[in-house]
Amino acid sequence: MKIKSLIFLGIVQSCLFLNAQVKSLDPVEYVNPLMGTQSLHNLSNGNTYPAICRPWGMNFWTPQTGKMGDGWAYTYTAEKIRGFKQTHQPSPWMNDYGQFSIMPVTGKLAFAEDERASWFSHKAEVSKPYYYSVYLADYDVKTEITTTERAAHFQITFPENEKSSIVIDAFDKGSYIKIIPSENKIIGYTTRNSGGVPENFKNYFVLVFDKPFSTNATWIDKILTKDKLEAAGLHTGAVIGFKTKKGEKVNVKTASSFISPEQAELNLKELGTASFEENVEQSKNEWNKVLGKIKVEDTNEEQLKTFYSCLYRTVCFPQKQYEIDKDGKIVHYSPYNGKVLPGYMYAGTGFWDTFRALYPLLNLFYPSINTEMQEGLINDYKEGGFLPEWSSPGFRNVMVGNNSASVVSDAYMKGLRGYDINKLYEALQHGANNEGPMDAVGRKGVQYYNTLGYVPYDVNINENAARTLEYAYDDFAIWKLAKALDRPKKEISLLEKRMMNYKKLYNSSIGLMSGRNKDGSFPPNFNPFKWGDAFTEGNSWHYSWSVFHDIQGLIDLMGGEKKFTSKLDAVFSTPPVFDDSYYGAVIHEIREMQIMNMGQYAHGNQPIQHMIYLYNYAGEPWKTQYWSREVMNRLYKPTPDGYCGDEDNGQTSAWYIFSAMGFYPVCPGTEEYVLGAPLFKKVTLQFENGKQLTINAPNTSDTSRYVNELKWDDSVYNKNYINHFDVFKGGELNFDMTSSPNLQRGTTSESYPYSYSTSK
């Protein structure tokens, strides 16, 4: 018995040790960059690619399975890799710019992308934010990559071969390349882009090898010329070759610049003289520093992987578009006027998506980074005449709304300072009262909105109801900022009036929002299941909740709290029927709603993502607690098919991060986060001011998902929201979780979050 007891004790100790090991992993080791990569044009499970990068880095790198110019650069189900691509792609729908690729080959020279492609297996692939490696089976070559913000370090392990080569593809649409054998160097530029750039756009690149070249060649289009060291044309590339021994490692250091070849050389110095392993370690440390702002302690490893994989996505975009010149000054190439100018610039985000939770997440954990982004927005306005609503890297004509207002207002209302907020306020006023150079910049239909109070359904302006609802919220965001800046009363009053324009679209005959004709009538037989048309990538069931700033006003329109919560319930109980006639086909967002078995709830797209939290405004917070857990459990996994729609530059990930912590920013521009229920047993938040907030929920589980009691430090806390600045003071939130809803907690108006209608 004694021996058995000792054996049992040893097993227990081993299990505890293994469990402790799991808990002590670095945050970055939980990240799966392949989460969301099993996506197609007609069904998105994230539409991501594995970005090997630094947080908010200027240049990302990714293995390339898709053809040149294909927005789906890497798909998990692909069989071959065509190269390793420098990328700035925010989504496959926006596609890429500033791109070129590297591909090692052996034996018979293959330089065209189809011919050089190699079979690979995920079993011989390692994907981390700071490190990537894969075995290229056709060439018996292992390729490893790590990065800095603007440079990358490749380590390529070759077999014994008389003809080992590295192919550099500068891509089509106009490129240039030059081999400099005396310096083991290749320089060039690529111009391939998908829009949003001036005519003089170039991405200049440099590559330096640690092994002399024994052969050299360049190509233009499909013609390869040996010993020719320079090429310019529509599609250029280079091949350098050498003999290699078995297991010989060739190091390639590369960087690029939007400014000049000389600046690309300066950017290359980010790698210094460090070895590949040292650069891997430096990148890993940086990732741990950024991801370590949130420390999660729990025994559910799958959920830990999901959490940190989502957090990784939230700090990828927008990317830094600025560089450091020879004098150590911050400069950028302007995608608006083509000039090189001083100051910050960021690019690669759509505010229609990211104003909702991504920017509030930055304001909570990374305000110093968002301060840089706000300075960058000032430069966007100065150089482009408007603030971008979708930047990649300059103005892009996609989506609706004027949601830069939310991004600017929320930052200032959350305490960010040190930049010219008055210039940004000027930019907001300009954007709110003018149509821009394209439909998605400024406010399309502003003349109708400012006179009628809505963009009419029958004046040939698409997605008019969505525009109206978003403009009304954007006016609220500007109103909040105007009051904070002590603007003239007349100006403030006008914004205050316009932010109530959402009421003009409430169609009492269907109990939801709809389009409205110019003469004031509602279109007869309006179909609330029709996607598009009056709305953007959704229908009336999704957009009717887009009254972030005045949920009480919406409750009043719908006939009171019981009717309101009944309508919320109906979102989940109504079958996922749809009308796709506006698009003429089932778009992927429709399909993603249809297959999730959650009724009309379409979490795969952004307009409805806050809706779950609205039960807190109407006395039934336990339904928020239930549904937020359902969405986290059912729609997020740390797997290649781990999202339920487009991840969209950190927004869908930010929803998960906030929800897992137990609160969500329903109305950016206010100081409040609306409560849900924490997913993990313990989460420690580390803020830039040095304070910590610990969220304890020791009883939380799949069954114990309801909040019985909440204590802030030692005091019982009965409100359905928490304040941003109180959070910043640190302390403890102690959740007592239970398997049955507490039907008394948070049920009276004193507990409800902010609504304009009840704030006066």
Describe this structure in words.
With 760 residues, the protein is α+β, with helices and mostly antiparallel strands. It folds into 2 domains: 52-292, Beta-galactosidase, Chain A, domain 5 (Distorted Sandwich), CATH 2.70.98.10; 294-758, alpha-1,2-mannosidases domains (Glycosyl hydrolase family fold, Up-down Bundle). The protein is 29% helix and 22% strand. It has 21 helices and 36 strands. A 9-stranded antiparallel sheet has the order 6-7-8-9-18-13-12-11-16. Strand 8 and strand 9 form a beta hairpin. Helix 7 crosses helix 8 (367-384) and helix 9 packs antiparallel against helix 10. It is globular. The chain starts with a helix and ends with a helix. 56% of the residues are buried. Residues 30-257 form the Glycosyl hydrolase family 92 N-terminal domain. Keywords: Calcium, Signal. Its cofactor is Ca(2+). Monomer. Residues 747-760 have a biased composition (Low complexity).
